[in-house]
Design a protein that fits this description.
By secondary structure, the protein is α/β, with parallel strands linked by helices. About 40% of the residues lie in helices and about 15% in strands.
């Protein structure tokens, strides 16, 4: 049973070379999905060796993830990438500038040997957003966010990198940081869902839920709510 669950887990590998014990656990439990943070990109040689080791141990599909949103949420830096502008700033500069910026994000993820970018952020929030969202969004207008989200998704797929739409069903308007405290709201608005509908239509392969209680859907946060998962899978027709 534990070995069956191993193929579903996403783990953070160590920053240094894999130990014999690490290798044994990865093989024995069938681990294949990993998430990488800024600390992994401090030593390019160590990263290259770790990725080679993981490739030699893993059989079958794997999701190797990173948060490369741009701005303050940019895990991959030099020598692979310069500091990129934050999403909210780029979203104000027109679609061509936005598209070039998106390509740079996707190409950086691919260049380091990963295949999943945990972006775009499709929450509706603007300049006055609380700190945990400020600068990470494309704006407050559903149509604009939906359109830019579609560009983000299609460009990543074209580059061979899987994007991940987040944070479903939308954190716009939430004042509490869900990394620290559990926010809630009475219901889900059609405005908040619009960018996610567009993302699904554009073929987004991954959607990240958030720790948000929607009272009309029950007491569980979205991450653990069967009814909110059902909304995503049935009403939005998400099959990823």
């Amino acid at each position: 049973m534990i070995r069956e669950l191993g193929v579903l887990l996403v783990l953070k590998p160590g920053d240094q070379a894999l130990s014999p014990e690490d290798r044994e656990v990865i093989k024995d439990f069938g681990l294949r999905h990993f998430i990488f943070f800024a600390s992994h990109f401090q030593d390019p040689e160590a990263l290259e060796e770790n990725l080679k080791a993981l490739n030699s141990l893993i059989r079958g599909p794997r999701l190797w993830m990173v948060d490369q949103e741009g701005g303050r949420v940019q895990r991959i830096g030099a020598p692979w990438s310069s500091k990129l502008s934050e999403p909210f700033q780029v979203a104000q500069k027109g679609e061509e500038t936005f598209r070039s910026w998106v390509c740079a994000l996707a190409q950086t993820v691919k260049a380091v040997g990963l295949n999943v970018n945990l972006a775009p952020v499709l929450d509706l929030a603007g300049e006055e957003a609380p700190e945990f969202l400020r600068g990470r969004t494309f704006g407050e207008e559903p149509e604009k966010v939906a359109r830019l989200g579609e560009i983000f998704i299609r460009e990543h797929l074209f580059q061979g990198v899987w994007p991940c739409a987040k944070h479903f069903p939308g954190l716009g308007g939430a004042l509490k940081d869900p990394h620290k405290v559990l926010p809630s709201r009475p219901e889900i608005s059609d405005r908040a869902l619009k960018p996610f509908r567009k993302a699904v239509a554009a073929g987004v392969p991954l959607v990240m839920t958030t720790h948000l209680v929607v009272e009309s859907f029950g007491p569980k946060p979205a991450t653990f709510s069967e009814s909110i998962s059902s909304l995503l899978k049935t009403d939005l027709a998400f099959g990823g």
